[in-house]
Amino acid sequence: MIEMETDTEKTSIFSLDFATLEAWLKDHKEPKFRAGQIFDWLYKKRVTSFEGMTNLSKDLRDKLANNFNLTTLKTLTKQEAKDGTIKFLFELHDGYSIETVVMRHDYGNSVCVTTQVGCRIGCTFCASTLGGLKRNLQAGEIVAQVLEAQRSLDEVEERVSSVVVMGIGEPFDNYDPLVAFLKTINHEKGLNIGARHITVSTSGIIPKIYDFANEKLQINFAISLHAPTAEIRSKLMPINKAHSIEKLMDAVRYYIDKTGRRITFEYGLFGGVNDQREHAEGLAKLIKGIKCHVNLIPVNDVLERDYVRTSKEDIYKFEKILKAHGVNVTIRREQGHDIDAACGQLRAKERKDETRG
């Protein structure tokens, strides 16, 4: 039986970005410099109790314990692929579960984090949306995923070098906790992950794209596009009915103008649906003149969905057409193919009570 989160549940200490923690300390008659000490204990030493913060006064440790919790995630399942990919299924305090993935690259270790328990966007190719949205995660529950991944890498003396917000859920549907999370992992006294090593992906909640542009965060930004036309996108991604592809392109242009940053369009290839010559030609036309990169994604098979995987030959043909139109394009390297790699797939298999419609 899953216990629902209550209003009396303490806030996770990991939900406080540095400035918010400084303000809290000031309100509680404590010097601001304590924020640096607390962040050091949380993110460098990675303590698991407030009592372990031995250079803080007993009074301050008690204040912290009375007001906050140190979010911990229980590992339900840990899968390791031959290529080094690690996938965790974590249990939260209320019994719900989330996925987190560690991916190993030549340039370092990347962690893919979840922002919601389930998802309400309803993409017809995705296992994450099975069972709908249960609740949003606190910022601290997102931060805790990176910390747990780092603890796992500590065992082999490696570190998290980049973070992608592409796990279960729509990040912009949980906007304020997302931004707090980004500020904490980027902060020099936090996890100190460079802005250029952080990527956020959205299915396209247009008002939030404008808000995000105005944050002026110099991180990598990706749009799950997956189609060159409104008709095909609405079939794959029902969000297109509320946030049209035309208005999405306007928001993308605003983001680029405001930040000066190039964006990435993620384009999953589905056999016979969006992977033919006319689709490649249409995509090139749609994004013409936009400062962007296209990431072609050979989709993983998901038992609960019935889309057919595009052949390698057709993937290379699609890439070639885009390149002929001057599009900057790559094919995403596949990882974790011998485990439940697709987003939401492990949760759907292990926690059927959460993912039944």
TrEMBL record:
Keyword vocabulary terms for this entry: 4Fe-4S, Cytoplasm, Disulfide bond, Iron, Iron-sulfur, Metal-binding, Methyltransferase, rRNA processing, S-adenosyl-L-methionine, Transferase, tRNA processing
Gene3D superfamilies: 1.10.150.530, Aldolase class I
Cofactor: [4Fe-4S] cluster
Single GO term (MF): rRNA (adenine(2503)-C2-)-methyltransferase activity
EC number annotated for this UniProt entry: 2.1.1.192
Main location: cytoplasm
Annotated [4Fe-4S] cluster binding sites: C119, C123, C126
Residue intervals of the Radical SAM core domain: 105-338
Pfam families named among the record's database cross-references: Radical_SAM, RlmN_N
InterPro entries per record: Aldolase_TIM (IPR013785), Methyltransferase_A (IPR040072), RlmN_N (IPR048641), RNA_MTrfase_RlmN (IPR027492), rRNA_lsu_MTrfase_RlmN/Cfr (IPR004383), rSAM (IPR007197), rSAM_sf (IPR058240)
Record: residues binding S-adenosyl-L-methionine: G169, E170, S201, S224, L225, H226, N300
GO CC annotations on file: cytoplasm
Similarity comment: Belongs to the radical SAM superfamily. RlmN family.
General remark: Reaction proceeds by a ping-pong mechanism involving intermediate methylation of a conserved cysteine residue.
Descriptive protein name: Probable dual-specificity RNA methyltransferase RlmN
Taxonomic lineage of the native organism: Bacteria, Bacillati, Bacillota, Bacilli, Bacillales
